[in-house]
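Problem 3 from the worked examples.
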Amino acid sequence: YRHMEGFGVHTYTLVAKSGKVLFVKFHWKPTCGIKNLTDEEAKVVGGANHSHATKDLHDAITSGNYPEWKLFIQT
């Protein structure tokens, strides 16, 4: 999960003090970079531990390597 991009599936409305309405979507990107498994790696890792992403996240936090994402707003 530390290396995954994310986005909201809904469009939201932001209203400025002036009354101007903006329709927005939220996107977040990991500051530690994006990483993916190949098909072969996914078969091995997923077959050995279906919670591998949760374990990776937990282990990183426990060791003080806190994950971070940047939030972007698409208007």
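Problem 4, a separate protein:
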Amino acid sequence: MLRDAVSNIEKFHDYLKSRTDARVKDYPLMQDPLHMTSILLTYIFFSLYMGPRLMANRKPFGLKTAMIIYNLSMVLLNAYIVYEFMMSGWATTFTWRCDLIDTSNSPQALRMIRVAWLFYFSKYIELLDTVFFVLRKKQSQITFLHVFHHSFMPWTWWWGITLTPAGGMGSFHAMVNAAVHVTMYFYYGLSAAGPRFQKYLWWKKYMTAIQLTQFVLVSIHISQYYFMEKCDYQVPLWIHLIWMYGVFFFLLFSNFWIQAYVKGKRLPVKEEQPKLNGSTSEPLTVVANGKHVENGNGVHNYTNGKLVLGKVKEV
């Protein structure tokens, strides 16, 4: 039985190699599905188990500079990807209707293949989103939706560009996704820059709305296939999968919207003023009877309603 299973896996592997588009065979991570699957399984294990355990007894890392550089770099990368998708057909020769897979070695087809692979590879870079959450001990941000979205996208895209790298109408959702990520990583970059930029982040709530709009656009575009008199798209399976992808993620992100903003589980909490029986992280300075009074660690404390002060020194 084990021998039959191994034999079937080998046959499937050989079938994939025979079906892999020759134009994409030499790109990194495109030789077989094992490497990319291993990376994604490691990502899931790190995100949900190993990472939180490693950080359990450690202080969260700041990573402010690293996050600013990372997010702004992702803005530029995704903007470049959108531009390349446009120049590879969407702003030049595509009809935005029944655009077929280009099987030639024309400059435009090869350009589409390059940007399709770059989009695919960018999904591995985006795994750093979760790594930052783990290292900063923001485990509440690592939801099922977050992990599923980050692992599902690169896994499915491997199959897409392995078999149909110059995907025609099947590449529309990638271009839209990259455009959304320009906005998303710009927001994250401002957020990482510190409190002085908070006044520019009033549109946080609308990030999810932009994501939802993305899935509506993808679903509408791909749905055209079902209403055309004739469309000879070479791999109809991709059409059905992309439509299901758009609807499925629309439902997931809609549920997130309801939980976050309708039920209010992720609305910002108003900062409370310090109370007499509480404490604050602000340093306390008191001048009394000609003497400068401060507590030992620069933080004032209250015990049983009484102010506890530390050392007293002359001014």
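Solution to problem 4. The chain is about 60% helix and 5% strand. The longest strand covers residues 286-288.
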